[in-house]
Amino acid sequence: MMPAWYLRMNPRERRLAWIVAGALFLLLNLLIWSKLFDTLKNAREELAFRKAAREEQSIYIKEKDLWAARDQWLKQNQPTLKSAVEASTLLDQVKEIAGKHNVLLERPAIGAGDATADHQSVFASFETKSPWPPLVHFLYDVQKPESFVVFESVQLQIDNADPTMMRGRFKIARWFAPAAQ
User: Fold this and answer.
1) Would you say the pTM of this structure is higher than 0.70?
2) pLDDT tens across 123-159, in order?
3) Do 125 and 171 form a contact (C-beta atoms < 8 A)?
4) Which of 1-10, 21-30, 118-127 has the highest mean pLDDT?
């Protein structure tokens, strides 16, 4: 009943054949189980992602009236971009607020920003030097919901020459209603 090739082997060869066959069996099982566990792990991650998305969507559905009211407020109050001069107006407003709070503005620059499906923008970039409390009041006054100003980039650090002063580098943008389709 044993194959002829097996019967021709001496006991050492038979033992070696069993060891090689066992090693191949273990490697094949390891490969199969590894693939199964990877698939299981990916399925669990996908399930967790979908559960999180589902929870997020259910929250949006529960807060539908709030988001509709915000969208309505946005459509009523968001200004429209008339020209690129709006960037200069933004910088003038920032200078006025900085003067009110004794914040020194350095290296002002303006430009036209992105135009996306949700908004158009103009930006102003500048550096500041001031003590911490006036800077906080300045930042508060610059970014109010009615002004549609966002900080795109903010870098703050303590001035090396005077530890009581803060140095900041800002890029702010004013968002306008999207262009009419």
Assistant:
1) no
2) 888 999 999 899 999 989 888 878 888 888 999 999 8
3) yes
4) 21-30
